[in-house]
């Protein structure tokens, strides 16, 4: 019986040190990302949702040159963030649309 309690206590201690990854959303409407700045934790996923009526958008990470495919009204695109950093982005076809994801421990 003592072994079972010890095993349970060890498992709980391990689980408390592991944070669950979270999901976040950035909405796109009126040619803006909302929120413009998003703070997340390592391992979290961000989903951009196009709520425009007729316009397609993409997410272009400026420093990396990495760009999503264009997604149309009602569509969404997601990306996980496995490392810390500041990830500034803009819309590929609409460079005036700017945002940033800040990934923290």
Average pLDDT metric: 88
| CATH homologous superfamily title | Cupredoxins -  blue copper proteins
CATH class reads: Mainly Beta
| Number of distinct beta strands | 9
The CATH level-2 architecture is identified as Sandwich
Distance between the termini: 38 Å
Q: How would you characterize the largest beta sheet?
A: 5 strands, mixed
From the spread of the alpha carbons, the general shape counts as globular
For this structure, the CATH topology is Immunoglobulin-like
How many domains comprise the coordinates? Answer: 1
Give the % helix.
Answer: 10-25%
| Number of continuous helical runs | 1
Please state roughly what percent of the residues sit in beta strands, choosing from under 5%, 5-15%, 15-25%, 25-35%, 35-45% or over 45%: 35-45%
Tell me what you see in this structure:
By secondary structure, the protein is mostly beta strands. 14% of the residues lie in helices and 41% in strands. It has one domain: Cupredoxins -  blue copper proteins (Immunoglobulin-like, Sandwich). The strands form two sheets. A five-stranded mixed sheet has the order 3-9-8-5-6, with no helix packed on it. A four-stranded mixed sheet has the order 2-1-4-7, with no helix packed on it. A hairpin with a 4-residue loop joins strand 5 and strand 6 (66-67). The longest helix has 15 residues, at 2-16. The termini are far apart. 15% of the residues are buried.
